[in-house]
């Protein structure tokens, strides 16, 4: 699905929303694979509770898939790619760990000791979840967004919302038996359009 957004008289954004299997040789444009997965493999996998080797379960494939999705989106003009498939939320082309390292650099520059302490305490926990960091994370264009997962082991759901001129990474969790929505990251589409115009210009 392609959504066109007029951010101002001069700036426009296109938001390309896709499931995320695109770019995967086993899935992309393969009619047999589509038929086989839909009618044979999918039901069999569900019945036997088989977890295949996919980006959602393999960190190396997750990294590779995220790189493909980012490379494609960064090569486009004024397009944001919103996708899924890896079970790892990505916002503005950064994973949570990469965003922590970005915040760490900023806190060091500002000599903000309280923030430094909090970030340094959180990084080891995030590294246990996913340890890859793109070495050029500081120069990445904010073009790739991954919705994350609707089936984390603890029942948490993450997703991307686009509403009222904003794009958000949201997290739903059960708190005292009631669903609670937390906005983890948020940015205005106008701000993204300006950033991309500056990068392209």
Describe this structure in words.
- The chain has 201 residues and is α/β, with parallel strands linked by helices.
- Strands 1-2-3-4 form a four-stranded mixed sheet. Strands 5-6-7 form a three-stranded antiparallel sheet.
- α3 (96-110) runs antiparallel to α4.
- Helix content is 39%, strand content 23%.
User: What is the strand arrangement across the widest sheet?
Assistant: 1-2-3-4
- Rg, rounded, reads 18 Å
Mean pLDDT value? 80
String of helices and strands: EEHHEHHEEEEH
Extract low-pLDDT stretches.
none
Q: Report helical residue fraction.
A: 25-40%
Contiguous helical run count: 5
Q: Strand content of the residues, in percent?
A: 15-25%
- Could you say which overall geometry the principal axes of the C-alpha atoms support? globular
- Structural class, please? alpha/beta
Distance between the termini: 27 Å
Biggest sheet details: 4 strands, mixed
* Number of β-strand runs: 7
């Amino acid at each position: 699905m392609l959504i066109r957004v007029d951010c101002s008289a001069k700036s426009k954004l296109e938001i390309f929303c896709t499931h995320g299997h695109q770019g995967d040789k086993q899935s992309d444009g393969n009619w047999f694979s589509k038929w086989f997965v839909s009618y044979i493999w999918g039901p069999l996998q569900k019945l036997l509770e088989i977890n295949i080797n996919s980006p959602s379960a393999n960190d190396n494939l997750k990294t590779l898939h995220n790189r493909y999705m980012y490379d494609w989106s960064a090569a486009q003009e004024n397009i944001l790619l919103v996708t899924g498939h890896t079970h790892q939320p990505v916002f503005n082309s950064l994973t949570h760990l990469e965003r922590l390292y970005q915040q760490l650099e900023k806190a060091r520059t500002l000599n903000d000791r309280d923030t430094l302490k909090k970030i340094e305490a959180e990084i080891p926990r995030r590294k246990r979840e996913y340890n890859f960091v793109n070495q050029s994370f500081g120069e990445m264009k904010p073009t790739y967004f991954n919705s994350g997962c609707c089936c984390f082991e603890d029942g948490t759901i993450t997703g991307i919302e686009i509403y009222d001129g904003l794009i958000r990474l949201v997290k739903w969790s059960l708190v005292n038996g009631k669903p609670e929505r937390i906005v983890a990251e948020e940015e205005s589409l106008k701000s993204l359009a300006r950033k991309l115009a500056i990068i392209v210009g």
